[in-house]
Write a structure and sequence with these properties.
The complex is a heterodimer of chains A (377) and B (348).
Chain A (H helix, E strand, L loop, with lengths): L1 H28 L5 E3 L7 E5 L3 E6 L10 E6 L2 H6 L4 E2 L5 E3 L2 H7 L9 E4 L8 H9 L3 E2 L8 H7 L3 E4 L8 H5 L4 E3 L8 H5 L1 H7 L4 H22 L7 E4 L1 E3 L2 E5 L4 H8 L3 E2 L9 E4 L1 H8 L4 E6 L7 H7 L7 H4 L3 E5 H4 L9 H12 L13 E2 L4
Parallel strand pairs in A: 4-5, 6-7, 6-9, 7-8, 9-10, 11-14, 11-16, 16-17
Antiparallel strand pairs in A: 1-2, 2-3, 3-4, 12-13, 13-15, 17-18
Chain B lengths: L1 H29 L7 H8 L7 H35 L12 H20 L12 H24 L3 H24 L3 H11 L8 H19 L2 H7 L3 H6 L4 H23 L5 H13 L4 H23 L10 H24 L1
Helix pairs in contact in B: 1-3, 1-13, 3-8, 3-11, 3-12, 3-13, 4-5, 4-6, 4-7, 4-11, 5-6, 5-11, 8-11, 12-13, 12-14, 13-14
Chain lengths: 377, 348
């Protein structure tokens, strides 16, 4: 009896603790910010600036109505003393879990020097990470969703940048006192939206202005290329994706990739199928709509030179597409082109590659970098 | 007089099942996410051609191979399940009981998960996925486990021991798969999960050149096992007394079921439930334990049920396909429960 009362007391004490910590959080939020950075292209985050600190708000990845995830960043030692949940910036030690986070950090002065841990480093080609792993300056913390907690505690980073996962794998890490920041850039469905997450990462290093300028430059270059195609009336049709275990995954109308097709002046066959992710269709649906498409675009990860023969090896039915017959397949081999790592912050180049395919006469002397026509038989 | 009546009745049921099989086959060819008028499909089926080349391609390259896969896989799994249930005298046995499909899963995991983790390139995005490499990996994995089971079968006298060994091998394979999943990326895990959901849509004409002959051969071999299976019904000791070489015929049964399971799992993924459910339904329908009736009957019934599941998985008006395992289990589970309940009522 007395034991159970003791347990109850401890339990309620614990509960009241968590409650009080929430209260202190919300009290900081009630003040009006001095200024707010609302991104032009990205939709998933805003930054609010206050006297001694800034609050980065990130949308809940799966529920727009849910409360936003808030991270408090501060450079003031007094403020940090009073608010133990706040993150000290600029970061001196941080941990990344995705290669895209490295792509952003690489553009921000001082960010790569502060990297001390990396999850799944085998997928990262950045030389700072590769060398850091050799010298021990960067530690391999294991997989992204089940990192080595003891190692993390030992590294003791200012923050660990995470990708959104539906299941909260990070409870124990949070419990261990490691502060987490969610980078959900991949949920942005436009190329420039993803680029603008550079400002989010820069906020951790007090380099927002430089990042905003960089985003502005990239956007200008991107829009210049885009403006070449928008007046055109003759737009070639394009089909995307391929079969994967019986299901054809194609880009939905508002998805990241479909935005590229539209901006490059192509007429995407599924432009009327709403969504920001991918469509999963069976073969005959795509064949019925896309058999006569002028072009066929693919993102593949292939060891070697991807070819028409490799395509037929996967599925003979691909031969029935006009784009296959007329040798109008173009692709990016992500293992070689680093489309996801480097292309992320060079959307103008990716777009030019596509314009070169769809409207070759607009960019006569251009050499493509990420996407190219399939030439190998 | 009554014997003739029941015999007649059985022929009628056989006839109905065959008709059902044929009808479901035609329905499978006729329905799909792209609308093609039924009369055109029927004309095409009897060799009168079809005006649109696109329609011909859809019918010939997509729907026909998929329907054949479903029919052959359904027949093979059902007859495999029947043999396992008889051999182990266990109504819960199915073709997956020997751990062979778990072995196939292990083979696929090695290719999809392990190679991804070692190479540093996520194989899930690879072209090879869904094609020959994965099929081969699954087949090799399944054969390794099959040989292990056969080796043990020669050592072990008792069927129950063999059953336990099969289940343990399955657990061990699943544990290894879990370990590999832990160290793999989200994409690779997704790829593996998708494989595990099963599909009749991955067997192209090229693969059918292997798939159909192997399954046909194994189905024919099953017909030669009718006599030992019937004797097994009496129990192992009786069977031995009746002059049956228990060990040898057990080996034959294991080889046939092993080949069926290994091949079907390699080409379609681990298709659940058909192998367990169809023998129960067939026994209920024919009210007999005679394998000279049951073996051909479960083949037809299994093929028909697989085709039914396949058509439900591709319901018209729905552009994608549902995973075949979701459909087989959702249909199979209530039917088996009702069959068992009804049998209980007869007993009580």
């Amino acid at each position: 009896m007395s034991k159970s009362i003791l347990v109850l007391v401890i339990f309620s004490a614990l509960l009241s603790c968590t409650n009080s910590s929430k209260k202190t959080n919300s009290s900081t939020v009630d003040v009006e910010p001095d200024s707010v950075y609302v991104p032009t292209y990205a939709k998933q985050f805003v930054i609010k600036y206050f006297q001694d600190y800034k609050i980065v708000e990130v949308n809940d990845p799966w529920d727009d109505a849910a409360p936003k995830h808030q991270i408090v960043l501060s450079s003031s030692s007094e403020y940090l003393k009073k608010n133990i949940d706040a993150i000290q910036v600029p970061l001196k030690r941080w941990v990344a879990v995705a290669s895209t986070q490295i792509s952003y950090a690489d553009k921000i002065e001082g960010a790569m020097d502060a990297l001390v841990g990396m999850a799944e480093p085998q997928y990262v080609s950045n030389p700072t990470v590769v060398n850091g792993l050799k010298t021990g300056a960067v530690r391999n913390i294991g997989t992204a969703f089940a990192p080595d907690l003891e190692l993390l505690i030992d590294i003791d980073p200012n923050v660990m940048m995470i990708s959104p996962f539906k299941e909260d794998f990070y409870g124990p890490i949070r419990q261990a006192g490691i502060k987490l920041a969610m980078n959900s850039s991949y949920l942005e469905n436009t190329p420039l939206g993803r680029v603008e997450w550079l400002v989010y990462v820069a906020a951790f290093f007090n380099k927002e202005q430089e990042a905003i300028d960089e985003v502005h430059n990239i956007a200008q270059r991107y829009n210049n290329v885009k403006s070449l195609t928008q007046e055109l009336t003759d737009k070639p049709t394009v089909v995307s994706g391929k079969i994967y275990q019986g299901v054809w995954y194609a880009a939905a109308a508002q998805s990241y990739n479909a935005n590229y097709y539209a901006d490059a002046g192509a007429d995407y066959i599924f432009k009327d199928r709403p969504g920001t992710g991918s469509l999963s269709y069976d073969f005959e649906t795509v064949y019925n709509s896309g058999a006569e498409a002028d072009y066929w675009v693919l993102l593949v990860n292939y060891n070697g030179n991807y070819s028409y023969e490799a395509l037929t090896d996967e599925d003979v039915r691909y031969k029935d597409f006009d784009a296959f017959k007329n040798r109008k397949v173009f692709f990016s081999n992500t293992s070689k082109s680093l489309f996801y790592e480097k292309g992320l912050l060079e959307p103008d180049v990716v777009l030019s590659d596509m314009v070169k395919v769809f409207h070759p006469n607009l960019l006569p002397n251009y050499m493509p970098r990420y996407y190219k026509m399939m030439t190998k038989e | 007089m009554q014997a003739i009546d029941t015999k007649n009745k059985k022929s009628v049921i056989f006839g109905l099942l065959l008709f059902l099989l044929l009808a479901l086959f035609v329905i499978n060819i006729s329905l799909g996410s792209v609308y093609i008028p039924a009369e055109k499909v029927l004309k095409w089926l009897v060799g009168m051609g079809i005006e649109k080349e696109k329609w011909h391609n859809i019918l010939f390259n997509t729907r026909l191979p998929q329907s054949l896969t479903a029919a052959f896989a359904g027949a093979g799994l059902a007859v495999g399940g029947l043999q396992m249930q008889t051999l182990f005298r266990n109504p819960l046995a199915g073709p997956s009981i020997l751990g062979i499909s778990a072995g196939a899963g292990l083979g696929v995991a090695v290719v999809v998960l392990l190679m991804g983790a070692i190479n540093g390139t996520a194989l899930s995005a690879f072209g090879v996925f869904g094609s020959v490499t994965v099929t081969m990996a699954a087949f090799v994995g399944a054969m390794v486990i099959l040989f292990m089971v056969l080796f043990l079968a020669r050592k072990l006298k008792n069927n129950a021991m063999l059953l336990i060994v099969g289940i343990m091998v399955g657990y061990a394979s699943n544990a290894l798969v879990g370990l590999m999943q832990f160290f793999s990326t989200k994409d690779d895990i997704q790829a593996y999960v998708v494989w595990g959901l099963g599909s009749f849509g991955n067997v192209s004409w090229e693969k059918h050149q292997v798939f159909i002959p192997v399954i046909t051969l194994s189905l024919l071999a099953s017909l030669f096992l009718i006599k030992p299976l019937n004797i097994y019904l009496l129990g192992e000791n009786y069977a031995a007394n009746l002059g049956l070489n228990v060990k040898r015929s057990r080996l034959h049964i294991l080889i046939v079921v092993g080949m069926l399971t290994a091949t079907i799992t390699a080409f379609c993924g681990p298709v659940a439930f058909l192998g367990l459910a169809v023998p129960h339904m067939t026994k209920n329908l024919f009210k007999t334990a005679d394998h000279s009736v049951l073996v051909p009957a479960v083949m037809i019934f299994g093929a028909a049920l697989a085709l039914l599941c396949n058509v439900i998985a591709r319901l018209p008006g729905f552009d994608g396909t549902l995973p075949i395992n979701a459909v087989t289990s959702l249909i199979g589970a209530p039917i088996v429960v009702s069959v068992i309940l009804r049998r209980r009522r007869l007993v009580d």
